[in-house]
Amino acid sequence: MQIDQTPVLLTSSAIAHDPAVALSDRQDRIALTLASVAQWRRIRPHSPLVLCDGSSYDFTADVARLFPAAPIECLVFENPQNLVKQYGRGYGEGEIVRYAVQQSKYIQTAGAFAKCSAKLWVSNFQRCLSSWNGRMLCKGVFLNAFSPLKRTQWLHVDTRFYVASTAFYTNYFLNAHHQLGLHAGEGLEECFKRVIEQNQLTHLMFQHQPIVEGTGGGMGRAYRTSWTRRVKEQWRLGLVRGTKKYKKLF
Fold first, then answer.
1. Quick one: which of 68, 89, 74 has its CA closest to 19?
2. Domain span at 13
3. Residue 240: predicted pLDDT
4. Cβ-contact 11, 52 below 8 angstroms
């Protein structure tokens, strides 16, 4: 399968096991997830989707009703609730991706996947794929790129959206969420960063900033990316990419 036909994996938890999330109503979470499926169908009308839910909610009937005959694979299982409550939604997300990578026929056939948190979509998805390297593409979050007095600092990886070959992800990131709890204050985003640093992985960052839209389940609010913000983020990316310390990440 060509990279532009790679399945998009939507990681869902219709029932919020993490008590810290702001968006906790089950029906709202289901409706927003299905809305994101509709957006992905618009963005990629001929490519498969994998909708994997880790709270035992089966989207099969909803998908059949709203998107008949669409290439959408629905997977469902029950995440370890006690561990999600202990370590947060990042742990649950890691388990959902693990399950999908191991169980999805679409992902196994393609040998690669694009992961996006349910309730979200990436409007410039095709442009993000333009720098595909055969291994992985993700977004780094950096501070102080515009400051002449402070050094640019890499905070973490934005795990809402990334693209990966199945083999590369399995080799390096399949168990990244198991590091949660080992370092105080770290989330899944910091775990991904740690994996990259420990394994000295290079050339993994998007050349174009993903435009993420939809509603974040953790914060419970819609993302609104203005034109000026998009320009600023792409400018930031260019500055970071030009630094000696972080150039190898791109």
1. 89
2. 3-249
3. 96
4. yes
The encoded tokens of residue 98 equal 């693990």
Maximum CA extent, the chain: 56
Residue given tokens 């026929």 in the structure block: 105
Note the pLDDT tens digit of each residue in 112-145.
999 999 999 999 999 999 999 999 999 999 999 9
- Give the torsion sign (CA, 208, 213, 217, 220): positive
pTM metric for this prediction: 0.94
Tokens describing residue 13:
């938890």
Left, alpha or beta for 94 (phi > 0: left; psi -120 to 50: alpha)? Answer: alpha
pLDDT at 53 over 80: yes
CATH of the domain at 200: 3.90.550
Q: Flag whether pLDDT at 1 surpasses 60.
A: no
Give the total number of structural domains in the chain: 1
Closest CA to 189 of 155, 232, 230: 155
